[in-house]
Write a structure and sequence with these properties.
elongated; mainly alpha; Arc Repressor Mutant, subunit A; 6% strand
């Protein structure tokens, strides 16, 4: 069974592959995806990080996430303003962001367990 962030990422990949979302199109905002999938902000962030890591999306600071151009070359920059390389360093950064998001989620879960134990309750999970 897929995790929520994987379901979101796969649905967006499908929309990109089908042509519903074309290169350069803005991807749905975090708020829209949270409402559409009943997901947490962390799940949406992880889905977006996965799409970026796989080369389906790019981020433009202050503007949002967009469908990547299929001919984008991750190891070179063509000099166009606003284009972020899909592979290379950008992919490594996205992979690290995903790993960090997973670590934060684990820490939050552990914190909730500790708080439950301190309150005399039974830990969740």
């Amino acid at each position: 069974m897929l995790l929520t962030f994987e379901v979101i990422a796969e649905a967006l990949r499908g929309r990109i592959r089908s042509g519903e979302l074309k290169p350069g199109d803005a991807l749905p905002t975090q708020a829209v995806l949270m409402a559409e999938y009943g997901a947490s902000s962390l799940s949406v962030q992880k889905a977006m990080a996965l799409l970026k890591q796989d080369g389906y999306a790019i981020s433009r600071p202050g503007k949002g996430a967009f469908v990547a151009h299929p001919d984008a070359d991750g190891d070179s920059d063509d000099g166009e303003a606003g284009n972020t390389p899909v592979g290379g360093t950008a992919a490594r950064v996205e992979a690290l962001e995903l790993a960090l998001a997973e670590a934060v989620e684990r820490i939050a879960d552990l914190r909730a367990r500790v708080e439950a134990l301190e309150a005399g309750g039974v830990p969740r999970g």
